Amino acid sequence: MQTRKKYIFITFFASWLLLFFFGGDQIRRLAFLSRKKAAVLKNWPRWTDRSFLKSFADPEELQSDGGLHKQSAKARRASRMNIYKHSRCRMETCFDFSRCEKHGFKVFVYPVEREDPVSESYLKIITSIEESRYYTSNPEEACLFILNIDTLDRDHLSIQYVHDINDKIQGFPLWNYGRNHLVFNLYSGTWPNYTEDLGFDIGQAILAKASFYVENFRPGFDISIPLFSKEHPQKGGERGWLYQNSVPPKKKYMLAFKGKRYLTGIGSDTRNATRSCSWTDGRGKQESSPGWETGPGVGTRLNGWGLMRALVCCFSSIQAACIPVLLSNGWELPFSDAIDWSKSAIVGDERLLLQVTQRPGACQSPILAFQQQTQFLWEAYFSSVEKIVQTTLEIIKDRIFHRESRPKFLWNTLPGGLLALPEYSTHLGDFPFYHLQHGSSPSGKFTAFIRAVSPVVSLSQPILKLIQAVSRSQHCAQILVLWSCEKPPPPRGRWPQTAVPLTVIHGRRKVSDRFFPYSAIGTDAVLSLDEHTSLSTSEVRRGGRGGGRWDAATQIRTPHGRAGCQGGFTSCPRISHWDNGGDPTGHCFYFPLGPGLMPPPLQRITAVATRLPKGVHCSGWDRSESWGVPGSPSPAVSSGNPRFSQRQDCLNQFAAWFGYMPLVHSQLRLDPVLFKDQVSVLRKKYRHLEKP
Amino acid sequence: MCASAKYNTRGPALIPRMKTKHRIYYITLFSIVLLGLIATGMFQFWPHSIESSSDWTVEKRSVHDVPVVKLPADSPIPERGDLSCRMHTCFDVYRCGFNPKNKIKVYIYTLKKYVDEYGMLVSNTISREYNELLTAISDSDFYTDDVNRACLFVPSIDVLNQNTVRIKETAQALAQLSRWDRGTNHLLFNMLPGGPPDYNTALDVPRDRALLAGGGFSTWTYRQGYDVSIPVYSPLSAEVELPERGPGPRRYFILSSQMALHPEYRSDLEALQAENGESVLILDKCTNLSEGVPSVRKRCHKHQVFDYPQVLQEATFCIVLRGARLGQAVLSDVLQAGCVPIVIADSYILPFSEVLDWKRSSVVIPEEKMPEMYSILQSIPQRQIEEMQRQARWFWEAYFRSMKSIALATLQIINDRIYPYAAMSYEEWNDPPAVKWSSVSNPLFLPLIPPQSQGFTAIVLTYDRVESLFRVITEVSKVPSLSKLLVVWNNQNKNPPEDSLWPKIRVPLKVVKTTENKLSNRFFPYDEIETEAVLAIDDDIIMLTSDELQFGYEVWREFPDRLVGYPGRLHLWDHEMNKWKYESEWTNEVSMVLTGAAFYHKYFNYLYTYKMPGDIKNWVDAHMNCEDIAMNFLVANVTGKAVIKVTPRKKFKCPECTAIDGLSLDQTHMVERSECINKFASVFGTMPLKVVEHRADPVLYKDDFPEKLKSFPNIGSL
């Protein structure tokens, strides 16, 4: 008994000793660390004499910056030009800005000669530039030059490899060490290591290259472009694959891995050989490529094999509205100057791959936003060669005309930098797109814009009535008359007396003049009218109110009562100039797009810009116009009408020019809330609208 | 400890049975054990309080008493900064690892005084600003005192101003830091780099792989994505209080306040002044100040004396011209004054340019273009100038104001690189609080038109009106685009009718039984909802025609981010009562639609259930009313857009229940609904509802046109 007790005591004692030596520390940590942490944390000491410490720099020294320096600014600039060349090029040292001053941003393409075969992709690039509004055929006025030598594929094992580029370009009188030249490249180097060697000296030319390695990238000078295959469409391009916002975004795999390697390394076709395997948190699975579009929720791009990065993958993952998780260390992301990739991809370190899985699933909203943003980026900048080229040019233009350049916000918000033109304004509030994000609202007034083509002879002429009707609207801020008639406009006294200022602008006799961005337009909203239009003030008020309140990015039309060519087609001003079907209240912004983006009519551009229903129907007779205010008569259009067929041609022409049909169907029109309701007319705000 | 406690309780029970001599023996042993335990406790837990109290004494120390470290002349020097360093090559992310808070851990080395072999100081021990900076880091969430858990190391060696340090010796001091390891994961702060005569744009102290937070980088020395460009702190901003100046005309258009400008620049500026007269003001150092007036606080133009930096508030644009260095402290003063900086410093990397969008708050003009400055600036519209001024001031308040804000912004940028999935967004960095507050970021911002083939899911909330429910089901099933019908059975006391009793319809019908009779069950994001579009419909809405419903769905497809409903309601401000009022009269405006029958995106179900602000959800469940108003508020608040009322319908009037539609009931109903609006408006902090004057009708609605050719002929009942 006693010995047993003794043993018990000894055991207790021993355990206590053990606890003391080994366990104490752990227990202390467990039980007391959290409570005592604040006290334990050794902060940076509060020195007793901290207020007596000297400042890091004498204020005088700080303000005069080390006294007078001797080197003159001009001398410094000159020496800088000599030091920072070639691999250290920057716009200030390797680009001749003075070439762009006189004629603006003009791009010259060396004429393609017959003996130099150019690959399909390069031809697409050249065509895109030649069709752009910056193209010039005169090298004298050019600011930027594009070679006629195909530099896209610089893998010397490839059949498309062009030899002796160095000799060729040295022979060009305009080459000038590559100054103001833009060189496109998709593939460089060859198997096995894919160095970024182009095989010729690009000198001071700007390099627009796919899969750019950060180390060779000259920041602010070169441009990283996306890799595209030769099947990539010239224009238009496929819409993204996100048709719906499924919530919660359910995909089969949370994380899918997509890497790329070159299996044989020769020829561009095999380069498309991509490898994808789905990868679910440690439980690896292999999956073949085609399942890519539907399966993965997150496309991880990881480069396990070569230095070349998986760019086609980047594309497919964007188009499939996955979230690219970019884990390619050291790779300059496409259009990184403009695009804020963190809004559409988780840009992480390859080494922290496992952490990425912590992110998705936790909350839905960022994934939803990522998906939409990815889709927007695809459609705005990547879906066609034209867009890629245009984005490249716009980025360079932004650097040259720094004052008139887009803030990053414009590039990363719908409708994107290619449609938000800085020539129009760099102020966000001037565009119709950003009011919501910016917490502002469009002005509540509109400018009535009337294009007059016939001389004023009598007081009963419709234009005078129209001016009076419009000016009675409380939302009308000013009236502009575009005088496109050979006869001079009547003197001031002959115009009707209006409460709002009336201005007469002299225009040329062109239909698209109507959409010229006149600086005299002082409001956001514009009501565009024809001189024959007959409108009641009530109708105008409706349109005006709607325009301000509704959604500044959509067009509101007030179709008027002219029988005949109502058909549902809007302005097609190039061909039919006598009577446009409608009178759109456009936002001021669409005006610069008109002349800016070549000939397309306003409605179309608006449709492209906003992608909201514009309500024009192709078959032309079963539905009329959306955004229409009631009062439009039945659109009795016979398809035998010659004007109708002209307009049909118009449509086809423009659709071809855009590469796709940007117009959107709509089945609704907006009426006043009490429109044609069986209530007292006195209750109704827009009672005159109901008269036929 | 547990063991001893057990022993103590068992002990006394044993004792009486023992012999006396043993008893003493045991008691002695007991006390020894007890004493030992107490001692253990003392030993284990005391030392830390002892340590912290010794810390306390350390805190009382002065900077002069810090330990001195002697550097041998031949101690190693780190290599020069590696220009090719990037996060993935020179930074050890494994040190940061996974972290639930997504915050990097920053360790600060203890302060030491470094001397060379002859006892000469290597640098000033620490400047006031660097001490402030380290204090700020130490007080922040980033700080850790555990060197083993740290991800980023900040040496306490002060290199803010290169001219105050001895380059070689400082480098040696860096190299002997305990965790230096070629500078990996070390962060140095430097504001004034370079020295005469050539003024390098980055710190000249050899620093190997260390990250540099530098003021005055040029594009050639800045390692994008690795270094952080920081401002040059202006100590004036702590001294002078400049209240924010509202928008409005300012006296001068362009102002230059810098002293010691290069004569070439000065002559350029003077030419500008000669051309444009009064609107351009070129200031310089005062030469004839009386004694005792600090020259840094005064500027002169000819004989006129101006207070600096107050004078900056008088100008629309203020010139920030490069000097020997690219980074200038005047930039900070200019931003503080809410003056738009004109930055004339070619190749300068503006502070925090990785995250800040300087195009919205400054004008950058190439040095060569200086003579054209005036015309360039005049082309900027007034509205934009005002916004730039606001933006400039906001940048100062958030990122320039103190050493603390500079330090925290720098660490945040590095943190964002390491934890990209928890990074701050462009908007968070750039939008001033006023914009953040008023801006709306629509969760469904991409203008998609969902495919018609997808159809919609109808959700019928029901309690026990089975007959009416069946009629609703039959009616709704006639709508061509219906793809599924979901009945939410809210009655816990009664089971839904048997399967065989339900009407036979062409689409799947699913019954969900709820656990509690709550109104919010109607807006729960059920997994059964597979379509984007949801039609919420009450079990007594039998008057809607198939055309009306189908048209409603078509309208929703064109506006998938809005609430599309039938009868519209309005909120009005009651001036007498000074509060909101609910209005169901036939007005010319609408701001809400009833969700007795309404189409909306499924995402709003998710938001309603999980993201509804405040206690609105519970309030609705408790009052058994106003769930539709809550939904209207929610959608308008997140999208910033108004509802769409379709078709002329004004109310849901069930033919059978006209009798109870009494006037008094109506009145209490209106009062209750008004109360809801006021309650919700106070929870949201604002009135998110938008008023519109239109409704959507089919394109040929009531047009003089053969009915049979219209797509939706059967619309028009009120």
Automatic annotation (TrEMBL), chain A:
Biased composition annotated in UniProt, kind: Low complexity: 626-640
Membrane topology type: Single-pass type II membrane protein
Subcellular location as annotated: Endoplasmic reticulum membrane
Pathway listed: Protein modification; protein glycosylation
Biological process terms in GO annotation: heparan sulfate proteoglycan biosynthetic process
Domain (Exostosin GT47) ranges: 102-277, 314-358
Matches recorded under Pfam families: Exostosin_GT47, Glyco_transf_64
Domain Glycosyl transferase: start-end pairs: 456-542, 634-675
GO molecular function (one): glycosyltransferase activity
Segments for region (Disordered): 623-643
Record-level GO cellular component terms: endoplasmic reticulum membrane
Keywords (A to Z) from UniProt: Disulfide bond, Endoplasmic reticulum, Glycoprotein, Glycosyltransferase, Membrane, Signal-anchor, Transferase, Transmembrane, Transmembrane helix
Gene3D superfamilies: Spore Coat Polysaccharide Biosynthesis Protein SpsA, Chain A
Family: Belongs to the glycosyltransferase 47 family.
Protein name: Exostosin GT47 domain-containing protein
From TrEMBL, chain B:
Intracellular or extracellular location(s): Endoplasmic reticulum membrane; Golgi apparatus, cis-Golgi network membrane
Keyword Cell membrane (UniProt): no
GO annotations of cellular component type: endoplasmic reticulum membrane; Golgi apparatus
InterPro entries per record: Exostosin, Exostosin_GT47, GT64_dom, Nucleotide-diphossugar_trans
Spans through the membrane: none
Molecular function (Gene Ontology), one example: metal ion binding
UniProt keywords, alphabetically: Disulfide bond, Endoplasmic reticulum, Glycoprotein, Glycosyltransferase, Golgi apparatus, Manganese, Membrane, Metal-binding, Signal-anchor, Transferase, Transmembrane, Transmembrane helix
Catalysed reaction equations from the record: 3-O-{[(1->4)-beta-D-GlcA-(1->4)-alpha-D-GlcNAc](n)-(1->4)-beta-D-GlcA-(1->3)-beta-D-Gal-(1->3)-beta-D-Gal-(1->4)-beta-D-Xyl}-L-seryl-[protein] + UDP-N-acetyl-alpha-D-glucosamine = 3-O-{alpha-D-GlcNAc-[(1->4)-beta-D-GlcA-(1->4)-alpha-D-GlcNAc](n)-(1->4)-beta-D-GlcA-(1->3)-beta-D-Gal-(1->3)-beta-D-Gal-(1->4)-beta-D-Xyl}-L-seryl-[protein] + UDP + H(+)
Entry EC no(s): 2.4.1.224
Pathway the protein takes part in: Protein modification; protein glycosylation
Membrane topology: Single-pass type II membrane protein
Broad class of where this protein is predominantly found: endoplasmic reticulum
Obligatory cofactor(s): Mn(2+)
Biological process terms in GO annotation: heparan sulfate proteoglycan biosynthetic process
Function: Glycosyltransferase forming with EXT1 the heterodimeric heparan sulfate polymerase which catalyzes the elongation of the heparan sulfate glycan backbone. Glycan backbone extension consists in the alternating transfer of (1->4)-beta-D-GlcA and (1->4)-alpha-D-GlcNAc residues from their respective UDP-sugar donors.
Stated family: Belongs to the glycosyltransferase 47 family.
Subunit organization: Part of the heparan sulfate polymerase, a dimeric complex composed of EXT1 and EXT2. Could also form homooligomeric complexes. Interacts with NDST1. Interacts with GALNT5.
Protein name: Exostosin-2
Organism: Chelydra serpentina (Snapping turtle)
